[in-house]
Amino acid sequence: MNERVSLFNLPNILTACNMLSGVLAILFVLLGRLDWAPWFIFLGAIFDWLDGFTARMLKQFSELGKQLDSLADMITFGLAPGIFMMVVIIVAIDLGNPILSENFNDYAAYSVNNWKNALLYGGSKVYTGFYLWLPFTALFIPVLSLFRLAKFNIDTRQSESFLGLPTPANTLFFTTFVLALSFYFSKDGYPSYFVTFLYEPIFLSVIILLMSYFLVTEIPLFALKLKSFAWKGNEIRYIFILISIILIFSTGVWSIALIVFLYLILSIFSNQNRTNKKD
Question: Looking at the DSSP assignment, which residues form a beta bridge with residue 221?
Answer without folding.
Answer: 162
